[in-house]
Prior knowledge:
With 580 residues, this protein is α/β, with parallel strands linked by helices. The chain is globular.
Amino acid sequence: MASLHKKIVTLFEETADMLEVNNENPFKVRAFRNAARAVEGVGKKIEDMAQQGKLEEINGVGKSIAEHIQDIIHHGTFPEYQKLHKQIPSEVLEMLSIPGVGAKKARTLWKELNIKSIKALEHACHKHLVSEFSGFGKKSEEKILAGIEGLKKFSDLFRFDEANAEAAKLLSYLKKSSHLIQLELGGSLRRHKEICKDIDLIASSNKPNKLMDYFVAYPEVASVINKGTTKSSVKLQSGINVDLRVVSDEDFPFALHHFTGSKEHNVALRTLAKAKGFKLNEYGLFKGKKEIFVSCKNETDLFKHFGMDFIPPELRENQGELEAAQDHALPDLVTLSDLKGVLHCHSTYSDGKNSMEEMALAAKDEGFSYIGITDHSHSAAYAGGMKLADIKRQHKEIDALNKKLKEIQILKGIEVDILEDGSLDYKNEVLALFDFVIASVHSRFKMGEKKMTERICTALASPYVDILAHPTGRLLLEREAYEVNLAQVIECAAKNGVAIEMNANPRRLDIDWRYGKLLKEKKVKSCISPDAHSTDQLDFCNYGIGIARKGWLEAGDILNTLSADALLKHFSQMRKKRRC
DNA sequence: GCCGTTTTCGGCCCGACTGTTTTCAGTCG
C-alpha cells in the first residue's frame, strides 16, 4: 500500500478507536472503520482522486471524511483526530490490542483506575487492583495477564503461506474424526489474503460436543481460549489462533459463507437480503416476516436466491463483486492449470541453489512447457550477478540443454538491476542477447517517491525491458515497500507495453492484488512468477494464482498463460512498439 | 458519519462466548 493510503487508514482506525473509548455514537465509529477499509481497497492514487474531487465516489467516504482526507494530504493530520489525540493518551489505545480488552474496559481502566498503559495494567493485575473493581473479577485479571504475555511472545499476524501450512495440518487431523460430516477452511485464508490473523474452520456434525473435544485435543494446541458447542478457539504452539465453528449439516452452507467473510462482503449481502425481504445469518436464509427457512444445498444455491452467480471466495471483499454477480459479469478467474510456463527463476549462475537442468526438469514435472531462467545482473554482487563471460557460457549451456531436454524449453532471460538513475545494469547490446528481460530494483530503497517513480519509469522506457519485477520491493511483515507511485508506474507500463510481475514468492506477493483492477483497466499484462531460487520454490505459483484471482485477473491478463511461441512473439512486438 | 428498491431522515448485520451477576454488558468476528 502506498504510504499515503497507509497513513489515512491508520489515522481513521485510530480515530475510530478513540471515538469508541470516548463512548461516542457507535455508528460514527463504524463510519470511520468503513472509511479506513474503503481507502485501503482503493487501487488508484488517492492524491489524484482528491485533486479531481472524486473522493466522495469511494463508497463509505462522504463529505466529512473527504475533508479529513484532504486535510491529511495537506497537513498530515486532521482537526478531529488531533483533538481526540490530545484527550486520550496513545498508550491507552495500545491496551485495545490485549485480547478481551475493548473500548469500554479500556475506558474504565483509564478513567476509574487511572491505568494508562499496558505496563501499568500488568502491574495492577499482579497487585489484584483490577479485580477489586466492579465489572472485573479474578478471571478478568488472569485473562488480561495471559493476553499481555501473548502480545510479548507473538506477533498476531501471519503470512498466508505460514497460516496455510498450519491449517493444512489441522484439517488433516480433524478429517480423521468420526463425528465430522463436512469441513472447510474459511476466513481470510479461504479468501487468500496475503496476511492472516487467524485460521477459521467451519464444520458440520451431529455430535458437536465430541467434535469440539477432539479439536481441543489436537497435539499442537498450546492453550484453549474458549470452548462451546458451536464455537471454540485455541492458540497453537506456532502462536496462531484457530476458531472452529460447528453447525448442523443443513446450516453448513450458511455458516461457510458467513465465516468466509469478509465482514464487509457479509454486511453488504445481508443489507441486500434485507431489502429483498430475507434475513441472512450463519444459520440460514429466512424469508418474510414469518422467517421461513430457505434450504440451500451449497453456497452456489445461496447466491442464486439473490439472482447472483457464485462469487469465488477471493473476490469477497465488497469491491463490486455483488454487483458483478447480479449482472452475471464476474471475471473468469485464472487458475494454475492456465499457466503454460514460468518466467522468473534463478540458477547456480547467480544465487539459485539448483542447476538450470534441475530447474528445467522440475518445471516439466510441474506441468510447465517452458521455463525462463533469469539470473541476476552484474551489479547484484550480493547475489553473484553475472559478468558478460558468464552470460555467454550460460547461453551456450541453454542451447545444449534445449537440444537434450524433451517437453520443456528453456528461455534465455535476465533479471537486470535498475540502477539509481533508472539506467540498466547492462548496455543495450548485452540486453539484446536475451529472449526477454525482467527489470527490478534491489538497491537504494529510500530515495523518496518522486525519484523512485522516475527511476522505474525511466527503466520501463528502455527498448529491452519486457517485465517489471516485484514493483514495490515489499517483504510482508518484514520490510515496508519503498515509496513509489504505482499508479504512475502502471501508466508508464501501459504506454511502453511492459508487463508487471505478480511475484508469487509468499514473502513478497508483489504487485498487491488491490492494483489488479487498475492493471486490467490500463490493459497492462501481468505474469505470475515464482522468483524461484530452488526447484521446490516453483510451486510458489500457487500463491501467485491466489493473489491474481483476488485482483480479478483472468487468463487473458497473464502473459505466462501463452505458449512459448506466442509469448516470444508478444515480447518482440512490444519491443518494436517501444523503438517507434 | 454514511446512505438511499424504507431515499434527505432515520436506520445502520447479527450471534456466540465469557465473566460477573442473577439478567446482561462487553468483546469478538
